[in-house]
Amino acid sequence: MASNAVNFLIGNVLGEFKDSPRSVMTLDSTGDLVLLASKHVLNIVNISSPYVGDSSNLPYNSCKYPNKNVKWEVKAAQWNPHKTESSVFVITKNHVADIFVHVNGKVKLLSTLQSHTRAITDLDWSVHDSNLLLTCSSDGNAFLWDKRQLGPVQLFETLQSCSSSQVKWNKLEEHIFATSHDRDIRIWDGRKTDRPIYISGHLKKIHGLDWSTHNSKLLASASEDETVKFGTTPSQPSITTSAN
């Protein structure tokens, strides 16, 4: 029987961190720095020169920041995608999001965002405004934040007992974003908090969501039902399905 397995090319191992598990990894916009986060520690590694010296036996060229809140595991993390703010990143722990800045080999906590009532499940920096950040949560709601302010700018409330697992900004339209709720998707306009567009198409929970980089109406979603679906917004689309 022919195998459907795909062989991937595995590159050289740059380094290993075995002192404690890391739950989240994210690459910055320069492609040089990797954030490895856990509830105990944050490591920032320069992958272009991962070691202090020429030998792999020397310590890693990394910044280590002790994570003070050891009760909750880090669930999501993302560097700011803008060049002017490329040293800024955010991590989430339970219902809290912490914004940090990495400068001259040191990490500093800038602010803590706290308005969700249950665990934050996803986050996304705006590609249009370096100060704006979206979070979604098991409480079913999404918050829009401005990193220059302590409180949320806007609440996008579902009014239903259905958790939200994904949130993604539209890459071409600055006010539009999408959230996933179990098997459904909601398209929001940041200027109209009470009128989302509903898209239903999956048979099981959605775990992946993203917008096209060349078509502002094209959205992709991936689900536990073993399909990836592509559709257009705002009207209910004819959906193309790719099954495993």
General description of the model:
By secondary structure, the protein is mainly beta. The chain has one domain: Methylamine Dehydrogenase, Chain H (7 Propeller). The protein contains no helices and 20 strands. A hairpin with a 3-residue loop joins strand 2 and strand 3. The relative contact order is 0.09. Keywords: WD repeat. It comes from Bugula neritina.
Describe the structure using short key phrases.
single chain; 244 residues; mainly beta; Methylamine Dehydrogenase, Chain H; 4-stranded antiparallel beta sheet; 20 strands; 0% helix; 48% strand; globular; disordered C terminus
| CATH class bucket | Mainly Beta
The overall average pLDDT, rounded, is 82
Rg for CA atoms: 19 Å
Q: The biggest beta sheet, please? A: 4 strands, antiparallel
Extract low-pLDDT stretches: 235-242
Number of helices: 0
